[in-house]
Amino acid sequence: HLAIAFFVAALLILSVDITTRYMTTREFQQHSASVSLNVWKAIFDRLVPPHIATEIERVLKFDVCRIRPQYTIIFPRLDEYPGLPQGRVLVRRQLYYRVQNLTGGEVTYPITVLVKSTASDFTFTGTNGEITLPRITQLRVNSIQHEITHRVSMKCGVTLPVMESHTEAIEVFSEVEELLVLNDRAVYVITSPCYDLEVRVENRNPNIQVQTDNVFLTNGLNRLRETLPGTWICSGGILPGTSLIVSWKAVGPSGTGG
Known about the structure:
Helices cover 22% and strands 47% of the residues. The protein has helices at 2-47, 50-60; strands spanning 64-75, 88-101, 107-114, 122-126, 129-133, 135-141, 144-145, 153-160, 170-181, 183-189, 194-203, 209-217, 225-228, 231-238, 243-251. The protein starts with a helix and ends in a 7-residue tail after the last strand. It is of the alpha+beta class.
């Protein structure tokens, strides 16, 4: 009995010692983080006006970051789209990016695909049946295709586990189609912090010629540079609220290339 008592006492002492060390380490880490945050906030509030400091603090609290988003505008072949009206051109817009969880815990990331077109709805009969533009054609998360339940608005949430690095980020892909005028532009509003943006314009319609007039960001620091014909790169970070604008001119024998 005495040996058992000594064994239990040793276990209790060891458990208390481990628990105490763990709690002390955690409290020290929390205290260090709190001091660092207070020092940063004091310095920041002194150097930056309060309204600007509040906005930057809001950006720093984002739970996720988009990695290397690729925004592609495609002028597709019209084999499946007969009967398009004169003076219009079909535009397919694709967005691909990877999402990294920046927090130390599990978060739910909301994915929204929304088409706001300046053109009126247009319905026609294609080779695969009746089509109404604009429309969402694809939403894919980590190679899993989501059913399109609404023509111009889709929302879903995906659970992001704790991620040690960007290599664990999930993939998101969406595609929409619109019927726009020959001289038009596409606007994409960036809603989450991202970095290393790539923009592409691809003309797959042999009956029209597409000239890209301008590709720029509305943050006043336009770092987009054309690396290849039809490809622009922005190296570095982009804050939410920035808009990407791509404008073009399309000409062809029949006006629409159809």
